Input
Amino acid sequence: MGCGEGGCGACTVLISQCLDRHSGYIEHRTVNACLAPICSIDGCHIITVEGLGSVAKSNLHPTQSRLAEMYGSQCGFCTPGIVMSLYGTVTSSNHPHSSLTIQDIEEAFDGNLCRCTGYRPILDAAKTFAKDINKLPRYDSLASSKPISTTLDKCLSIVKKIDKEPNQIEFPEELRQHIPQSIHLKGL
Amino acid sequence: MVKETTQQSTPPTIDYLLFYVNGKKIIEHHVEPDWTLLWYLRNSKSYSIKFLLIYISIYKY
Output
């Protein structure tokens, strides 16, 4: 899927790894699957876009449903990658003290290309996950009534909606205790 | 002359990769080191079926 050379980001997957067995700290990274060597993922939990949620199981993750509601799925080529990048960012900031900013979210999409040239709806949907979206100024200046963003109201209305808690795949207990060993692979 | 007292012992090695994909445990013994994760996911049996079906339906169409 995708370009196979790390250009488009359509094959983005989420790699979770328990870095500290004592504190149980889990690091989430989103990588291009086409660039990650298979040997680098020993002891990791990989979540592909197939494992995230689907309409068939009526189990859409908020990242997916918001992207759809904000018209962010266009031709659909980049959508899986965008969803995974966003999911990774949202997951790694999924704690009470998180301060996920709009800036952070914009930077999360560095590796994803949209060839429909329609980043606006995608980023609008993504920014609804930012904690500082309410701080955005509404108008150019105090005097002018020209709104800066024509879609901000829609973003804010989606932020207020409470998402249904999706069934997420938990980090496997076994990998919390995983001790990496030296691996000797013979190949096929 | 230095007498060798420590015994040469090879560290324990394993010959498989252990990881989870979408919550499912996978122990993979036959892995080529030059595979990428994408290549593996697309070609492993459990994950390629879906794409094979899509491919067949497109082909028939």
